[in-house]
Amino acid sequence: MRARLLRFGPDALGKAGVVGSGRLYAAVAAGGFRRYATYRAATLAGVFTNTVFGVILAYTYIALWDERPHLGGYDQSQALTYVWLGQALLTTMCVMGTGFEEELIERIRTGDIAIDLYRPADLQLWWLAQDLGRALFQLLGRGLIPFVLGAWLFDLSLPASPLTWLAFLVAVALGVLVSYSFRFLVALAAFWLMDGAGITQMAWLAGVFCSGMVLPLNVFPGVLGEVVRALPWAALIQAPADVLMGEADLLGTFAFQAGWAVALLGAGRLLQVVATRRVVVQGG
Amino acid sequence: MDSHSHSHSQVDGSFDESHDSFSNNSFNESFIELDGVEKVFDVRKKTGFMRSERREVRAVDSISFRVARGEMVGYIGPNGAGKSTTIKMLTGILTPSGGRLRVAGIDPSRERTRLARRIGVVFGQRTTLWWDLPLIDSYKLMHRMYRIPDARYRENLDRCVELLELADLLDVPVRQLSLGQRMRGDIAAALLHDPEVLYLDEPTIGLDVISKARVREFLRDLNAERGTTVLLTTHDLQDIEQLCSRVMVIDHGRLMYDGPLTGLHEVGDSERTLVVDLERELPPVEVPSARVVRVEGPRQWLAFPASESAAPLVARIAAEYPLVDLSVREPDIEAVIAKMLHSMRDTPKPPPEQAERSGRAAS
Ligand SMILES: Nc1ncnc2c1ncn2[C@@H]1O[C@H](COP(=O)(O)OP(=O)(O)O)[C@@H](O)[C@H]1O
Ligand SMILES: [Mg+2]
């Protein structure tokens, strides 16, 4: 069991194996990027939606912060930065689903998963690579424009130091990793559930509520606030936002995100071993 | 479990060295070996609130056969006979419940990834291709996934593109391909890494006549030129007729027949149909070795033994009747198998062991 868990990909041992695997997963990631890039109309519509929602949320926040200045420890400009960051990262982090998980669930349901298992590639790494490609596209294709527009229309508090921006990108990357590992778990649940739709809807609801896409998690009161800030969804938008606005202890935030990523990836790996066993013995 | 995974990773590590020695193995004359292979599924059926009933489905029931390197074998049987289950066990994505199974000396379910580099699989109703991306992107992935040397990859791709007429399709997203185009694309994807054996599960299902012909021709060339071992399941008797010198029939998970197709025709005593259009309405045509089974205006349907040539029959009718047009309909595979199984059941049923042996004796 231990040996299996540590084995990433078929030929993890050996330098040639690592290089070969690297090239494969790089190709998969590039494919993931291009897949989403082919849907130009959808991307354009998404950019429009994110911008409109950003404007609506921004005016709501302005009204709210006029009433309650320094709500959650943010000043108004920081609150607006949070709004536009949320819009920029929404699809990158797949807060509302519609990532690879629906496809994977469908493959499990129809039995196409048998093909995936038969290939000499690791399921979790394969989809991870593809999801990283997708996230990169959505960060650039869907996130960038609304954010730039937001910064142009409103007074945002953005850092001057390129190092802070770099740290922000690290936090985004870790956030994507957490988002992926969680959705991988959700998708694998389809092996045991008759209907994957139920669990994706629950994951979607939890994401909308706990990621802070509606209100910053700082604003959540008391114990509820402490709980949501400790859950993995806090790694998606709240963590990168705090890093960007200099509100976070860098190492602590990275450790929080990485901790969740490792835990969820580990759980995903375990579930994958069990699921593979089930497919191989029970035929799905 | 521990020892299993251990051997697994060990084997992966030494893959490069073991590969050549395996290919040259002379003791492995039969490439695929099954000895009493079984697959039993546990099926749980809900019988009420919080209550379920467990039932065993014997999808494959003690099947034994051998396939030599370079053979091209048809694997047929009614729906639910256990064909796909057998193929899944051969690829290693399903573990047998019993018996012994070896492909190229390897136990597929224990060393699935290692074997994957040496076999190709096409599941007719599923696709390995990337749905949203141009066909060529899926091939580039295969290139990386199977670590195909660059020159080899280019050579194989060129060959497949030429023979399967894929040149115009390479830049087309897979979702825009027709079923026949997609199938050709899938077959190419399964062959880029030079597999020693190709398993095809219903490769011609739903294809138009032209695509079917192209796929068949390609498979025939592949087998003849590269010596690739081919095992295919199909519902199309013509696939078997045109491709396979040997056919295996399974029913309810058991091997009922193993031998040449002609033998199957005889065992099944099946009939082909000659459809003739005469100049005008006439009484049923009278010729020896054929009987009229249907008359509709000037058109008549004649049944004749499938093992006999249609040529003398046609010549005779053309000489004696005002013939305008004709066509020959092959018996469909279901009819052939049904007849064969029926005639086997009529005779006192031999125990399964014997049925198998007598089947094999025919080959
Ligand atoms: N994963 C599975 N779980 C339970 N029963 C299965 C499973 N796969 C196949 N079966 C059953 O096994 C039998 C053989 O199926 P299959 O191999 O798909 O037949 P074929 O390909 O010849 O049509 C059928 O009765 C089918 O219902
Ligand atoms: Mg089948």
UniProtKB/TrEMBL annotation, chain B:
GO terms for molecular function: ATP binding; ATP hydrolysis activity. GO terms for biological process: response to antibiotic. PANTHER family: ABC TRANSPORTER ATP-BINDING PROTEIN (PTHR42711), ABC-TRANSPORT PROTEIN, ATP-BINDING COMPONENT (PTHR42711:SF1). It is a peripheral membrane protein. Residues 343-363 have a biased composition (Basic and acidic residues). This is ABC transporter ATP-binding protein. PROSITE patterns: ABC_TRANSPORTER_2 (PS50893). The keyword Transport applies. It is found in: Cell membrane. Residues 1-20, 342-363 are annotated as: Disordered. One of its GO terms (cellular component) is plasma membrane. Keywords: Antibiotic resistance, ATP-binding, Nucleotide-binding, Transport. The keyword Chloroplast does not apply. Residues 32-277 form the ABC transporter domain.
